[in-house]
Amino acid sequence: MRLPDLDLDPAFPDFNFHDTWDPTFTPGHGPTRTQLAEWVYRSRQGEQGARLDYANTMYWTLREETFLCFERAHGARPIGYDNWFYCKLTQFLELLVYVRLSLTVGPPPQCAYQPTTDRPWEEGFLVLGPAEVCIEGDVQVAFTPQDNDPTLWAEIVAEVSSAPGEWVAVLEGILARRRRAKGTPKAWEWKRKKKRNDLIRELLDQGADGLTICEELDRQRIEPLPAMRVARIESWVAAWTHERVNRNIQQLIAKQKSRRKPVKR
Questions:
Q1: Does the structure show a pLDDT above 50 at 265?
Q2: Alpha helix (H) ranges present in the chain?
Q3: One domain, residues 165 and 201
Q4: DSSP letter, residue 91
Q5: Which of 161, 170, 218, 243 is at 20 to 30 A from 76, Cα to Cα?
Q6: Which residue range is the domain that position 48 belongs to?
Q7: What is the percentage of the chain residues whose pLDDT exceeds 90?
Q8: Are 24 and 76 contained in the same domain?
Q9: What would the pLDDT profile of 171-216 be if each residue is shown by its tens digit?
């Protein structure tokens, strides 16, 4: 399932709930991204209360009732509860593994600078440097909406935040562990990759160049590469013109060139 990019919806990222921090459950009055960033920062300092606050917010925000509340407050979106659950869960987990924090103060033009105290949220507006990690697909395999449980989230927040500098690796380990525990077969993933690779080799045999290959991949709705998701690029043709992501596509095509069977003459 390809998730909609709800982070571009201004109403989505800050629509969060917390039962004690926002006891009235008033839409728009729950923890904002800045508040969540503060809890992650403090969680990394070992504050148990911040870890519980973050896990509590995950639980209340990921409930179907919250999704329905979002629709009542901001109007219907072309998504269902499952989309909401996975988009929000991905948002929470990506924030949990941010790699850099800086601040901006005052009106534009603003410049970012490093915090000078252990309470950076009191100095200015928090700017997070996200980890370049694509976990969307793994999240959909590792969790279901029925897994929404405050104890589970508290365990994950504690395990990730207790690993200085290794946050991404620890989260990826948790996702892999849950995939194994669920016994989810990887056959579906293998079939998707095989279809893509077979198509590329077929086009190479026809003498197609890289751009033509990307056009055909788009036409057949082939799933984008992880590097494309990180760069928020959904089209193979757009990725081909992207300086950094183009290298990933070139490498993929080169691999298929080396695997082509000799053509009998």
A1: no
A2: 33-44, 48-61, 64-74, 81-96, 136-142, 150-161, 167-182, 187-205, 210-219, 226-230, 236-240, 243-259
A3: no
A4: H
A5: 218
A6: 6-182
A7: 29
A8: yes
A9: 989 998 888 877 655 555 667 788 888 999 999 999 999 999 999 9
**Is 218 inside any structural domain?**
yes
Amino acid at 239: A
Q: Whose structure tokens read 């924090």?
A: 101
Residue 233 and residue 254 in one domain: yes
Count structural domains, the chain: 2
**118 in any annotated domain:** yes
Cis before 109? omega within 30: yes
Instruction: Give per-residue pLDDT as tens, 26-43.
Output: 766 788 887 888 888 889
Question: What DSSP line would sit under 133-192, residue for residue?
Answer: ---HHHHHHH--GGG--HHHHHHHHHHHHTSTT-HHHHHHHHHHHHHHHHT--SHHHHHH
Report how far residue 148's alpha carbon sits from residue 85's, in angstroms, rounded to the nearest whole number: 9
SS3 224: coil
Is residue 65 in some structural domain? yes
Say what the pLDDT of residue 54 is. 95
153 or 231, greater pLDDT? 153
| Of 182, 209, 241, the domain-final residue | 182
Q: Is the whole model's pTM more than 0.70, yes or no?
A: no
CB 103 within 8 A of CB 125: yes
Instruction: Provide the β-strand partners of residue 129.
Output: 100
- When the pLDDT of each residue in the chain is averaged and rounded to a whole number, the result is 79
Region of residue 199 (left: phi > 0; alpha: psi -120 to 50; beta: else) = alpha
Domain boundary among 155, 182, 209: 182
Contacts of 206 (CB under 8 A, 6+ apart): none
